[in-house]
């Protein structure tokens, strides 16, 4: 199975993958870096390929190369940045609807711990 993580560069999506992939032998964050980790679901082993993508606009033409054969997409946004959710609607959701029309999307708010309460 293949999981691709997508979102703005400031969304800490790579940090989330590091937590998921902590059992990977080596994980060095880079453009299109990936690793395979093992999960157990309902008593069955699932090998999950974790694919990181670059959120910067200069990679807009390369990022779609990571989408083929994707089983699920984590669409991440930083909850501590006011415009982040707007970019999900304006930029990321249309890209994913175009390149991954039948792939389930999971919207993930990251950095909740950085929100200041007044």
UniProtKB/TrEMBL annotation:
PROSITE patterns: RHO (PS51420). This is Rho-related GTP-binding protein RhoU. Gene3D superfamilies: P-loop containing nucleotide triphosphate hydrolases. It comes from Macrostomum lignano. The keyword Nucleotidyltransferase does not apply. GO terms for biological process: small GTPase-mediated signal transduction. GO terms for molecular function: GTP binding; GTPase activity. Keywords: GTP-binding, Nucleotide-binding. Signal peptide: none annotated.
